[in-house]
Each structure stands twice: as C-alpha cells, then as structure tokens.
Amino acid sequence: MVIFKKITDLKSYLSDKRRHQKIGFVPTMGALHQGHLHLVKESMKNNLLTVVSVFVNPTQFNDIEDFNKYPNTLSTDIEQLASVKCDVLFCPSANEMYPDGFGEKVTFNIGNIDKVLEGTFRPGHFNGVCQIVDKLLKIVEPDHLFMGQKDYQQSMVVQSMLENYYKDHPVKLHVVPTVRSSSGLALSSRNERLSSTARQNALAIYNRLTWIKDNLDNMSIQDLENGAEEHLLKNGFTKIDYVAIADAKSLEPVSIYNKEVKTVILIAAFIDGVRLIDNLLVN
Ligand code: AMP
C-alpha cells in the first residue's frame, strides 16, 4: 500500500495509474472497523485501483466536543488497510485540505434531502460533508465511489451532489449494506466511546428497527414511533433525536405504511453522551 499526505504527490501518482485501471474511492474519518473494510473490499472486488482517505473533517461537526473526542487510530488504520491489500491511503493534514482555514464559505444546493432528519438536528453537517467530499473527489477523480448504507441520508445527499455538480465527470456511487456485530449493533467508530453496559444497551436501536419492521402491517406509524422511543428511553438512551418511518427515496415522513412504496426506518439517539444512528430498509 502506498501512503500519501500531500495532494500533489497523490495526484501525480494517480495520473499515471488511471491510464491502466479505473479508480474506486472510499472516503473515511478513520478509526476503521469491518464496516469500512467492507467498502474497501467491494471496491477491490470490482478490480479498481482502490484509494481510501482518512481525514476527520472539522467542517462537518456541528458539535466541537464530538470533533475533539473523535478517535484517531492512524497506525492501526494503516495495518488494517494493508491487511486487505488496499492500494492507496491518503491521510492529509487539516492544513493540506483547508489551506485557507475552516471558514471557507461554500454552499451546495442539494434540494430538500439535506433539510430533514440529520439536517434538522445537525445544522451545517451535510454542507460540511459535501465540502470535503467535493474536495476529495476533485483530488482523487474516481470512477466509482463507495459509501455505507449506515449513513443512509448522507449517501442520498452525496448522490444528489453528484447529480447536480458532477454531470460532466460522472462518478458511480455504490451504497454498501451496513455491517453489524453478531448481536445486530451497527459497527461505528463512535461505539469505541461506549462503556460495556452502554454497548449492550445500544442494541435497543437495532431491536426497535426490526420491531418496527415486523409491526408495520398491524400498528399505526405514530404508535410504532412512540413505542420505539419509549423502549429506547427505558434502555439507557437519554435523548432521542428521531425515530422516523420515511419514504426511502425522498425521506418524507410516511403517515400510512404502503408496501408498494420503498420505506426506510431511521433512528438517531444518545447513549452515554454518544450520538448513534442506524436505519433499516423495509421493502
Ligand atoms: P466514517 O468514517 O464514519 O465517516 O464512515 C466512512 C464510510 O464508511 C461511510 O460511507 C460510512 O457510511 C461507512 N460505514 C461506517 N460504518 C459502516 C458500517 N457499519 N457498515 C458499512 N459501512 C459503514
């Protein structure tokens, strides 16, 4: 695996390589786990020269505490990426990515998809995501981009950004299913910050996602959402941002479940001071 910290070095390396092989790109914030590695393996499986970035992007954190506590495990990240034979790691400094500071004003017009759910609870978050993904895409110029369903709304926002801003340089987005522990907990770098009790209690999220899915035909949407919130609060969660049953294409709330309409259940809630998100597609 080749490791680059400088944009110019990575670009010149890729300019030669891209003549022979298509490029697959996996952007991450590090603290890598099997979920991230699954994205890398998907890219490798498609015979792509696979570039992973590890960069904790300050502009997508609406909570400075969350940013300060974000785990940094670069040496083990490197070992993990090397173990799956990843081709290239790009791990730039903050100064390399934001030479003019983090105050750079850029606004992405994404439609409505970034205004609901995460957009409501984390103002500015998706604009920060678009800002860094756009910078990275312009550096790596991949043919394929791999992102996780774990961040369902994020993948929709990025798809919309690609449609609105990358018409002339098409990048194919692959959304890869969420990797879970054997108990169902979605793997997340933030799980590292949970105590063992909280980690056990955190299973309530997946438990309620499947409970809602199993009861969509015989309970009202309101009762399902309220029932799930109550269960989470009884199981160690201290604050619920949302339990939402939504149209999987628009993220508009669903008022009556219709099997014919692709539907997604999404949860964001705090446990042990850590905000966890997860989702489940139901049809
Ligand atoms: P992050 O480092 O959290 O920004 O995540 C980098 C990429 O990995 C994003 O596209 C995430 O959706 C994806 N990802 C994170 N956790 C998982 C998981 N458990 N399963 C699949 N993909 C994941």
TrEMBL record:
Location within or outside the cell: Cytoplasm
Read off the InterPro entries from this record. Pantoate_ligase, Pantoate_ligase_C, Rossmann-like_a/b/a_fold
Provide the E.C. number(s) assigned to this enzyme: 6.3.2.1
User: What Gene Ontology molecular function terms does this protein carry?
Assistant: ligase activity
Q: In its keyword annotation, does this UniProt entry include Repeat?
A: no
Say if the entry is tagged with keyword ATP-binding.
Answer: yes
Residues reported in the UniProt entry to bind (R)-pantoate: 60, 154
Residue sites binding ATP per the record: 29-36, 148-151, 179, 187-190
Catalyzed reaction equations: (R)-pantoate + beta-alanine + ATP = (R)-pantothenate + AMP + diphosphate + H(+)
Identify the main location: cytoplasm
Anything else known: The reaction proceeds by a bi uni uni bi ping pong mechanism.
Give the family this protein belongs to, as stated in its UniProt record. Answer: Belongs to the pantothenate synthetase family.
Subunit notes for this chain? Homodimer.
Q: What is this protein called?
A: Pantothenate synthetase
Query: Native species of this protein?
Result: Polluticaenibacter yanchengensis
Its gene? panC
